[in-house]
User: Which sequence fits this backbone?
């Protein structure tokens, strides 16, 4: 990896700014976040990964990062996966169950070392409030594919055209064209 003329190998740990990354605990989210972390590390940043207990990364594969684990309580609902395929249920659950442990972990980390910013997974929407409260800049890594991006971009049009019929149960039915 090119370092644009900067020698990061002799930079002391005390002078390196830290970046905290917080991936969603699913493979399609962890891998891109770690790829970004590796790039940032080659540019001289100290990387700290805050991660959920569920699907925890193997720390020995990344000896150049520091890790902090938070209790996500995902084990309380993981048994429901075979019968409940509602992805939004699990995303909402993780956002609720991780909010306080994440805040506590990040607060403690900020007391210990300088942090330049937080980079969180776009699915962890609660992290914006935490970052704002701690006066920490936050960036979002969106790990979805170009297909998802295109689909998201046309949803407002479909909604405006009345293609979605929301029911009281929170489910939706797609209205077929005649």
Assistant:
């Amino acid at each position: 990896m090119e370092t644009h003329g900067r020698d990061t190998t002799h930079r002391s740990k005390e002078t390196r700014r830290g970046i905290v990354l917080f991936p969603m605990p699913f493979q399609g989210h962890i891998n891109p976040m770690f790829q970004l972390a590796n790039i940032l590390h080659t540019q001289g940043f100290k990387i700290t990964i805050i991660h959920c207990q569920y699907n925890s990364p193997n720390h020995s594969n990344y000896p150049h990062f520091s890790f902090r684990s938070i209790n996500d309580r995902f084990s309380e609902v993981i048994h429901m996966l075979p019968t409940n395929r509602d992805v939004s249920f699990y995303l909402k659950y993780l956002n609720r169950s991780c909010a306080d442990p994440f805040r506590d972990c990040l607060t403690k980390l900020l007391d210990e070392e300088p942090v330049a910013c937080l980079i969180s997974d776009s699915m962890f929407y609660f992290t914006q409030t935490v970052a704002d409260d701690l006066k920490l800049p936050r960036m979002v890594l969106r790990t979805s594919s170009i297909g998802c991006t295109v689909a998201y971009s046309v949803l407002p049009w479909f909604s405006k055209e009345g293609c979605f019929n929301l029911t009281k149960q929170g489910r939706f039915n797609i209205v077929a064209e005649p």
